[in-house]
Amino acid sequence: MASADEEPRVRPPRHFRRPWLRSERPVPRGVMRPLESFLELEAGSALLLMAAAVAALVWVNVAGGSYEDFWATEVVVEIGPLELHEGLGDIVNDLLMAVFFFVVSLEVKREIVFGSLRERSSAAVPVAAALGTMVGGAVVYLAVNLGGGEPSGWAVPIATDIAFALGVLGLAGRRAPTELRAFLLTLAVVDDLGTIAVIGLFYSSGLDLGWLGAAVALTFAVVGLQRIGVRH
User: Fold this and answer.
1) Measured distance CA(214)–CA(109) in Å, rounded
2) Quick check: 100 and 164 in contact, CB under 8 A?
3) Which of 127, 129, 185, 226 is the most exposed place for a label (fewest CB within 10 A)?
4) What global pTM score does this model have?
């Protein structure tokens, strides 16, 4: 028991306690906070991306079979009657890339609402540039391959690798102007949307009208919620 001269030790309320990530425990202090600081540096993330690309190129050229086997590794997740069977490559393409494009789209929206793309004339420039690069890439490909190559692959060069484009820009860090980043983001997003449309129209066996209708309905639902003032 505390003596009369000692003040009782009062624990702070739960909502005043330091969150786990900001605590002095070994994992937050030694792993999580340094990782968080590294990810906040665009140059660091860009270097990590470039290093991974170089490692993948070396791996696939030295031992291509093991590289393909690694990405074909099946991941199985079972929760009661629900089962998920996907390869590692499919998880990256269908899940992680969706998260990546979601983040990029948020950045583009921020530029449209608050940044350098608020004026339609400013936003029209990267959109026109995206359409120009798509048409130009397809024309150059057809000019090279019509004589005896594979002309049906004309849609391959029209896509911009947005991850690498942002990685190269990230190497410049804060020295790169924000207008350049907004321009490149908008160009890459419009380019990739156009590429998806080309794949759906010219390379797919058919459109699933049910899922397409669901996507359109959700888009209208989001617009409706925005119009009535829902912000959360």
Assistant:
1) 23
2) no
3) 226
4) 0.63
Q: Can you read off the two tokens belonging to residue 199?
A: 């794949």
Nearest-angstrom CA–CA distance, 113 and 231: 14
Quote the pLDDT of residue 155. 86
pLDDT of residue 183: 84
Beta carbons within 8 Å of 112's beta carbon, 6+ residues apart = 118, 123
Give SS3 for 47: helix
What would the mean pLDDT of 39-68 be, rounded to a whole number? 85
- Please report where in the chains the tokens 């594979």 appear, as a residue: 150
- Please count the CA atoms within 13 angstroms of the CA of 141 that sit on its side-chain side: 16
Smallest CA-to-CA distance from 50 within 91, 101, 184, 42 is with 42
Neighbouring CB atoms inside 10 A of 131's CB total 15
Does residue 22 contact residue 28 with C-beta atoms inside 8 Å? yes
For residue 222, the SS3 value is: helix
C-alpha 178/C-alpha 107 separation (Å) is 11
3-state class percentages of the chain: helix first, strand second, coil last, to nearest 5: 70, 5, 25
Q: How many CB atoms lie within 10 A of CB 167?
A: 20
Q: What would you measure as the largest C-alpha separation in the chain, in angstroms?
A: 97
**Which amino acid appears at position 140 of this protein?**
V
Q: Indicate if the alpha-carbon torsion angle 216, 218, 220, 226 is positive or negative.
A: negative
Name the residue with tokens 């004339």. Answer: 121
Rounded Cα–Cα distance for residues 192 and 158 (Å): 9
